[in-house]
Amino acid sequence: MGPIAIVAPIFLLIGLGMLARRLGILDDPTVKKTNALLYWLCLPALLFFKTYRLPFGVPDVGPALGALVLGSLASVVLGFVLSWGINLTPPGRAAFLQAGFRGNLAFVGLPVALFYLRSTGQDTAGAEGKIYLLLAPGIIFYNLFGVVILMSAQLRFQAKAWGRMGLELGKNPLVLSILAGLLYQKTGLGLWDFLDRTLETLSGAVLPLALIGVGASAKLLGFSSYRLPEVVAALTKVTLTPLLGFGFALWLGLGGMETRILVILMMAPTAPAAFILSQQLKADAELTAKVLVLSVLFSLGAYGIALGLLEQWPL
């Protein structure tokens, strides 16, 4: 299947979300409630369902996680150099660096990766399993590193920020559902058929709802509303960060399918959690919000180009 056929359903679903927002079918409260439904119910159901049914035991995601971490670290280092060139304040620099590496793994990276896998027509159960297992440590890393970046770029370290972050991680439904799925898998027990089918049905709602929600959440502003730092940070997120991850994936010897999936995940636009954390730690939340919107728009083209190139790359 060609790259256009792979990305077309993704773009159409995001476009449907934008259209529904413009027609007034979806508004802020509705989108917020839908995202809450995904976050607290549908995504945990998908992650538990897929992890407890992993066909080959627990796949090794160490190399993929290593490439994600190293690529993110390298992105922040290069972003720090860029931030000095565009004369940012400490709060602005902190927001710039976080927005340039922290991607929306659950709501964009996961759906796009699954769409890609299912479009190949191959047996991708093992690759799917690695995606689900990579999400938990990936989310934890993004949270930890996000706090470090926001505080160190402003030279402020607050004990309460670490405590709040630990509390949030401890009750994160995505992390907990993956851990629960792995623990349940270890028991060797199955689920009653009606529960299994219920989880499968809930899981099926994730991809379309998540992508429609991304489109509905993208509030378009006039081009004059954006400044150079926001454009540079958004481009860093959807081009530089995945390119660095790609380089480290090759260096660590990841397979072709693993490398493609890693690039897709690292190309995901800036996560909404980055905006929340910027507010909490007194970074430039407005800059983060604008990067979030721009990175969603830029990622539409970036995904199309990247998937086309990766299909031709002799991995």
TrEMBL record:
TM ranges: 6-24, 36-52, 64-87, 99-119, 131-153, 174-195, 201-222, 234-254, 260-277, 289-310
Keywords, sorted A to Z: Cell membrane, Membrane, Transmembrane, Transmembrane helix, Transport
Protein's UniProt keywords contain Transmembrane helix: yes
Domain of life assignment: Bacteria
GO cellular component terms given for this protein: plasma membrane
Stretch forming the signal peptide: none
UniProt cross-references to InterPro entries, sorted A to Z: Mem_transp_PIN-like, Na+/solute_symporter_sf
GO terms for biological process, alphabetical: transmembrane transport
Membrane topology: Multi-pass membrane protein
Compartmental location: Cell membrane
Pfam families given in the database record: Mem_trans
The family this protein is said to belong to: Belongs to the auxin efflux carrier (TC 2.A.69) family.
The protein's name in its UniProt record: Transporter
